[in-house]
Specification:
There is one protein chain. By secondary structure, the protein is of the alpha/beta class. Helix content is about 30%, strand content about 20%. The protein has helices spanning about 20-25, 60-70, 90-105, 125-135, 165-170, 190-200, 225-235, 260-270; strands spanning about 1-5, 30-40, 45, 50, 75-80, 110-115, 140-145, 175-180, 205-210, 245. Helix 7 (about 225-235) packs parallel to helix 8 (about 260-270).
Length: about 280
């Protein structure tokens, strides 16, 4: 059960605490939190338009430190400007150093690679990035990716490279894929779109159902009753079904901005994972 979390994600730019994820249930039901979104450019690494080292994020790092004590893994979502990781080796090295230092300084347990520009980075450059991350951070570092759902079943693809080929070449290094089942690229009202991904060759143990947690966050919001029915069917159909990811934490239904952690509680009920 995974949340995406923007460090600044409401109209008043207030800190949204992650601590209810460890205080609302014992043990916590959330397994992973993905901090969004990183933007890498030729001057440095940025988190939501501020330097990742800005004091504005001190409370965020305090929260993530507490979550780690409860075995919740913290990843960083890299979305912006993959052009900086393309091209010749010297250009790559200069820009990759910013990414490496930011991940290390803030103790990230993994990275979520979300390529949504088909011209930004080639498959060989993605493989170079994966190989370098694995070399630098070791076997325990989580490398995940977030394609739109159709990119895993032969349909539309925002990334510009073939995920079937990537899985064949580096699937052993990719922990799982957060397939985006929203914004017209997939539907979580029933299992058909997920079934197509499995039929296309991706194993259920590698495919997380990514959904929007509030209709204000993205198109294709589906109510919890329908989601619960769909997840019940998936868990019966696929014993090794991986799980769910919600975009995003701060206003997740049913609790909204006052109780956003309730989404994970409901997901735990649907997936029957509560201790």
């Amino acid at each position: 059960i995974i949340y995406y979390h923007s460090a600044i994600n409401n109209t008043e730019d207030k800190h949204v605490s992650l601590l209810p994820l460890i205080n609302s249930s014992s043990p916590p039901v959330v397994t992973n939190v993905i901090v969004a979104t990183l933007d890498l450019n030729i001057t440095g690494l940025f988190l939501n338009s501020d330097s990742i080292d800005s004091p504005a994020f001190d409370r965020l790092w305090s929260d993530t430190s507490q979550l780690r004590k409860h075995n919740i893994k913290i990843s960083a979502m890299l979305l912006g400007n993959f052009h900086t990781l393309s091209g010749n080796q010297s250009f790559f090295e200069r820009n990759y150093a910013f990414l490496h230092d930011g991940l290390k300084t803030h103790n990230f347990d993994g990275i979520d690679i979300d390529v949504e520009d088909p011209t930004a980075i080639s498959l060989p450059d993605v493989i170079r990035l994966i190989d370098r991350l694995r070399r630098d951070f070791g076997s325990g570092f989580l490398i995940t990716m977030s394609p739109v759902a159709e990119a895993l079943n032969g349909g539309r693809n925002l990334s510009g490279f073939n995920y079937t080929i990537l899985e064949a070449k580096r699937g052993n290094e990719i922990a799982w894929y957060h397939a985006q089942f929203y914004n017209t690229f997939g539907w979580v009202g029933d299992t058909r779109d997920y079934d197509r991904i499995v039929e296309f060759g991706f194993k259920p143990e590698k495919v997380v159902v990514g959904m929007t947690t509030n209709k204000a966050n993205a198109g294709g919001f589906v109510g919890l009753e329908m989601v619960g029915k769909m997840l019940g069917e998936l868990t019966k159909k696929y014993e090794d079904f991986k799980g769910v990811a919600g975009w995003e934490y701060f206003d997740s239904s049913p609790g909204g901005q006052t109780r956003p952690w309730e989404w994970s509680e409901r997901m735990a009920e649907f997936l029957e994972v509560r201790s």
